[in-house]
Amino acid sequence: MTMMRKFYTGAAVLALGTSAAVAQEVEVLHWWTSGGEAAALNVLREDLAGGGVGWTDMPVAGGGGSDAMTVLRARVTAGDPPTAVQMLGFAIQNWAEEGALADLNALAEEQNWNEVVPEALQRFSTYEGNWVAAPVNVHSTNWVWANTALMEELGIEQPETWEDFVAAMETAQEAGYTPLAHGGQAWQDATIFDSVAMGAGGPEFYQAAFVDLDPEALGGAEMVEAFNRMETLRGFVDDNFSGRDWNLATAMVINGEALFQIMGDWAKGEFVNAGLTAGEEFQCFRVPGSEGTVTFNSDQFAMFNVEDESDQESQLAMASAVMSPEFQIAFNVVKGSAPARTDIDPSAFDACGQAAMADLAAAGENGTLFGSMAHGHANPPSVQNAMYDVITAHFNGEYDAETAAAEMVTAVELAQ
Amino acid sequence: MAATDPMLDSGADFRTRLQTWLPKIVLAPSFAIMVIFVYGFIAFTVYLSFTGSRMLPSFDLVGWQNYDRLFRIREWDIAVSNLFVFASLYIVISTIIGLTLAIFLDQKIRGEGILRPIFLYPMALSFIVTGTAWKWFLDPGIGIEHSMHLWGFENFEFDWIKDRDMAVYTIVIAAVWQSSGFVMAMFLAGLRGIDNEILKAAQMDGASNFQMYRRIILPQLRPAFLSAFVILSHLAIKSYDLVIALTGGGPGNATAMPATFMYSYTFTRDQMGIGAASAVIMLMTIAAIMVPYLYAELREKK
Prior knowledge:
The complex is a heterodimer of chains A (416) and B (302). With 416 residues, chain A is α/β, with parallel strands linked by helices.
């Protein structure tokens, strides 16, 4: 760490002849404004402050980052990009294609990023072989969150297959509980669909339909089956589900009103904040049918091309701090995600975190680590949102399964 | 007094010239800004709608492809038909309620000074506030339905906001609540502008109250009707914040509107070309309403 910083400061002094006393600053555009996320980000801020790099915070709340991206577009068009921007999947690739991102290769080489970051993740952090972003975490979306007390009360074992999963929810329904806590927003419907499609068609189908966008797969029998399963799940949500925010759905599981929730591992933060312990008061397991696979999304910090030498230095200091094992642990313990490096000691993490890390490493080895369609890591935003339209319309009863599969083909065709 | 002094003459001359030029000089900056930032950017949007722009503006022309795609996207059809339902109901209901309130307030009642601002007040709120408040009122879990259940009306049901087919009407309810008072104020001004002599003459001739309104007062309110229509129709076409706050375009995409469609395609889906095309269609719709109105207004002035 200090070696690194000396090296870069030295390089900058040589290059510019300026003194190292130049106030270094990073301006960071992000949408981590909720309690746990903001606390996690503070870890990074303090880390940088220790190295003499100031932090200009530029939070843009809301919209899962879409508002932040709108602000970013305006800034870049005006020729004034922030130093670092929180970014997801394809957005990084698009900005890299525009030539807007800085090259982090020297640092990546130095710190062996190629070795420690899973390949499926590098697909997003690199562009044409050059590192352009530093991955912060890996969230996986195919999790079920369950209320342990309720499972015991209803005599439900952890379901192993889709059929068991449905049977468990039927039991909950008969007992008068909400079987599946869910909020009817397009991205949440799609989050469920990620796992359901993986279960219905398997990894090859997932790859063909959502990554390769093969019309055969998009309109095929597996897709129809996936939509049929969505209809089954539709029968397990409460009447008042539409428009509900995800954390309120999580609260239903926490309060024992609902049995399960299918949601990415950011939901864990809600349980932890409510004072519950993973593996004790609440359970986490992979969505039945999708075991052995991990559908992920990853927050990264993309570094923009900045003119100023001292800014470039701060940028590298920040990228280096983001990739440091200390930060990866501190941040991800709070955030509920797994570190983006696979060489991290899992002892600091809770049961769900350790499971997530083990699954991630295994999926990385076996080639069953896939970018999540619902969270913009399988296809570009235009296609992703076109799929959202179909999934949401179907979930709200506008199509039957066959029509939905046919619409999927049309929607994807129009979006390309 | 003959002005023979050349100094004085040129001075006066300069002053008159200054007087004719001064308004133009003062207005020039704002005129220039408007030409660039309104008409210039309208032209830019039209241009973009013929390009293959995705995440950032690009300048490669692709002809009518964006328009072709736009009209094949199902969500656009939903948005347009929603706009049609919403705009017609919103304009008609707001006008009826506004007119009724104005006529009642015009009966020389006591407390008009208190009532008028009460009815007008919703207009002072932003559509975001209106949308959020009505979202809570209409939510079956916490709103009106829930309260009715607590008061013992177990069978009371009002879950339009969760119902795909009815959700668009909840937007009408909130929008009407917001705008009716404003329409009332316009009609009230119109009513106050009617000459009392005519009304007295009509009363002499034995016109009933109803006839008086039907034959004399309402026809004289024509300008107020027109203004109300123009203002309400453009509010309806550009309705974005209300929809986002109230339903977020849901359930599913049942309450998508052209404005939400445009924002989504331009800024979240990286399909700027299609977004621009939808914006141009919206502009054309507004123009189709405004141009005849402006034409009629300007012709009358001559």
